[in-house]
Amino acid sequence: MAEPLLSVRNLVKHFPLPHGVIDAILRRPPERVRAVDDVSFTVERGKTLGLVGESGCGKSTLGRCILRLYDADAGEVRYDGVDLMGLDDAGLAPYRKRMQVVFQDPYSSLNPRQSVGKMLLEVLDVHGIGTAGERHRRVIHLLTQVGLRPTDAQKYPGEFSGGQRQRLGIARALAVEPELLIADEPLSALDVSIQAQILQLLLDLRASLGLTMIFISHDLRVVRYLSDDVAVMYLGKIVEQAPTADLFARPQHPYTLALLSAMPEVGGVSREAIAVEGEPPSAVHVPPGCRFHPRCPWNVARCVEEEPELKELLPRHAVACHVAEDRLA
Amino acid sequence: MNEPILTVDNLRVEIPTRRGVVHAVRGVSFTVNRGETFALVGESGSGKTMTCRAIVGLIHPPGKIAGGSVVFQGQDLVRLPVRDLERVRGSGVVMVFQDPMTALNPVLTVEQQITETLSRGEPPLFQRDRAIELLRQVGIPDPERRLGSYAHQLSGGQRQRVMLAIALARQPALLLADEPTTALDVTIQAQILRLMLTLQKEFGMALILVTHDLGVVYQSVDRVAVMYAGQIVELAATAELFARPRHPYTIGLIGSVPSADRNRLLTPIFGMPPDMIDFGRGCPFAPRCAWATEECVDREIPLAAVGAEHWSRCIHVDRLDSAPPRPAASPGGVSGG
Amino acid sequence: MSRYIAQRLLWVVVVLLGVTVLTFVIMHLTPGDPASILLGPLATPEEVAKLNQELGLDRPLVTQYAFWLAHVVRGDLGRSITLHRPVLGEVWLRFQATLVLTAGALLIAVGPGILLGVLAARWQGSLVDRFSILLTAGGVSIPSFWYGMLLIILFSLKLRLLPGTGMYAPAGQQTIPDLLVHLILPAITLAGLPAAVITRVTRTSMLDALRADYVRTARAKGVHERDVAFRHAFRNTMVAIVTVVGLELGFLLAGAVYVEYVFSWPGVGLMLVNAILTRDFPLIQGGVLLVATTYVMINLLSDVCYAYLDPRIRFG
Fold first, then answer.
1. Where are the domains of chain C?
2. Tell me, what's the ipTM?
3. How much is the pTM?
């Protein structure tokens, strides 16, 4: 079996909170936001992993650590066998071409003072792709690939709609012909019908370019449509991971069940509502034991004492829950 | 049960801008019955939010209601003087907004914002008890302590609950909720929605829910109006709408949402919403419609009955069951606009 | 909140120390010394040196500073070289005069300023609004000393309505009515800029508040427009106003120099000008320390008010 394209192992990223003079005098311990806390997973070449969770679960931070937009505190990120964590800027450069990202906000991720064509040319220039003539042709090709017109190259981002700008974001990401595309909530800022367009575009491009993708989203319905495997995150940890069909047919973790029942569907069977009470806690004061236990309807004594490990309880289906483990044993 | 409490007739809202007049709402008519859950579905620019704002009279100048009537409990709200309208707001009709972060006043306590709506005649202690009771009803734990809280001390879900408590303080007959859960986390969304529907039953309120989430509509709503470019393009009972959609836009919307059946491909609508200043003639959806013909852009198309309690603004309803005559552009293809 | 105040107090001390050091260094680096000025241009170098020694000005700077600081913490600001009086007493006397002027200017700036700002926002685009814009533009652009002099020419010299110099009539009793009459012109002059700023900030802040989501909510609940403006919009505006007033107080203290000079108002500003010209080091140091302390304390007070008005700061 081929080695996975991306292998993340024990990744940790904490953000320290401001700690002033008064705090030092009062001897308060420095606090951190534990955004990503020991996360591991792999993505095979050509497959799509869906990373799902609500706000604050760490999925965006995880995406950025993989791209080394943030430097993780611990763990390794192996791309095609090479650990990216140990590389300096020069060593990282060739890998930057192989991984690209599409962000959520199509409005702020494009420079309003740069024409679209120039922006794409610049990307090609920075990465030293092709000759000048070839670059121009490539820009035209990219624009048509994402469903825009060649004449759009002269326009400025402000002249496009949200959906079109997202197409531009995708074009920019694809300019360097990456192998891995990380899409961080690319649909959230768009209208429903435009979401469908962009979603379909991503699917078509994935097929025609053989892309490997990590699709980050809070919307399980979209993730299901696009992904081969799904990992559910809660408060910095992966709580369940499985092939898509499996996760939706046989969800094991109570949080997954809650997410599923919280998403009403057209024509869907109304799942028994797993009522999750309470609010998502802060990632600064993480609950002891299982992080989900304060809101979990299945909460037992063991859940407070011991943090459950992510274990493979069914074929290729890993869950981090004591109750689920007992049930499936 | 089928007693109308709100009748909107030919409502029009115009907003003058530098480029020209934006016709945000163009002749919208519908009725909401007592205790009913009614949804206004559409995307940005469809006019659904403006319609709601027009109902409670909260259109910011220079925008204005350019015509039509909004009859609520026998009174035409459009023609009421401000003083009288203020009286109807809060006690008769109430509106809850999308973003709970900014909808509450940051320098006033929760108690102050709830009791503000209660009538002046009642003694303060009574008002305080009422506020505690309301907070309890919306599911806020430890309500006595929460009275003194400020907005920034509450989470998003809690703020939305407080908004609901404020809205229900005088037991209005009609609640307008403009995308009340969009800004919240998924699990909280479900909680708040469940809460709203429960409270609706308890208080016997009618609810107009503005949303773009078809899943929510399918599961929780009695009747739906689908809006596009400032008009209602289809109006029906929920089950009927999803079983037999009779307008290409509705069909397109339903086809745009990934569903439980993984094998069903998405069929996105290509193209973009029209310019709200300069529509051109006829059906505004025609440029994006796979069934459109010359006739569609020839004249204005009225809302016509296509079944029992089912109206559509499409002249080709009988052809919608079969495949479209011209294929929609490749999905995800030319973005148009 | 107490943590907030504690942090700010720490900074107060740091800032004051910094200011005194800076003043000390600047003074001693500028050419000229009190002895030469006191003794006049005909004095011999030996006489100057002798006087300097008597005054303790030949010792190293650090020693002089340490010496001065040691006295200050005991409450002794030294003696003025030119006036032969204790600095503390002199400064305090003059400061009272400045306080009166500043208070008058503040009242004129804040009262009508806020009122005009609120009205301009409430009736945006109306004549009131346009008038306010005109006034604020003028207040900000016209230098205070210039239009102070204009006022003197108009009201004192031509119309003979109001006095244009001093705090009291020279020959008469120092009564309150007399004081008030003398206060009018200088206070209006000093108030010009702050009034303009306060009006403008109030107007903008109020406009923002009236457009805010929570105001929309209040209207949607049926709250009367009048209550919307005052209870909701204005209370949020107060936060911005307090901040601005705090900042403007600082200006008032500093700007008082020009006005005191033009109107010969016997305040700290005028005192400092003369002290600097005569290199009266103890007086300069004492005066600056007082003004700095006042300025810093006012800022602290305004921050505390701000925290009180905005619960987001109070409860972190």
1. 87-314
2. 0.81
3. 0.78
